[in-house]
Amino acid sequence: MAFKRGDGVLFTKTSTTSYVDRASETRVDIEFGVVTSITRDGVIKKFIPARAGIEIAPERLGFTGKNYRLAQENWDVEGAMEYCLNRPWPHDDRYRCAPFDSVEQAREELAQFRKRGAA
User: Fold this and answer.
1) Is the CB of residue 96 less than 8 Å from the CB of residue 85?
2) What are the residue boundaries of the structural domains of the chain, listed by start?
């Protein structure tokens, strides 16, 4: 999948929390960002994640898993970024930039930013 500068991207990140007194928990977070730099082959070199607001390489934030392209021709990428910047955490709505819990949840919530007539 070849990305272009200005495309939206959903990154998957799996993390495990280990506890002394109970079983470990594995969590998958889905985070949105905007592609700012690519290789000649369309691989993401840098992007701006909604939670950080600065340009960074995906691997610096542990995004080494699967990613999904939201082509700027078909999506209101700016609107989606604004939405993700203001998305509250479920435990306390004073905090913003909450990741999605699944790709399905991200698709559902971001569907409002799909341009009319987009394939």
Assistant:
1) yes
2) 8-16+25-113
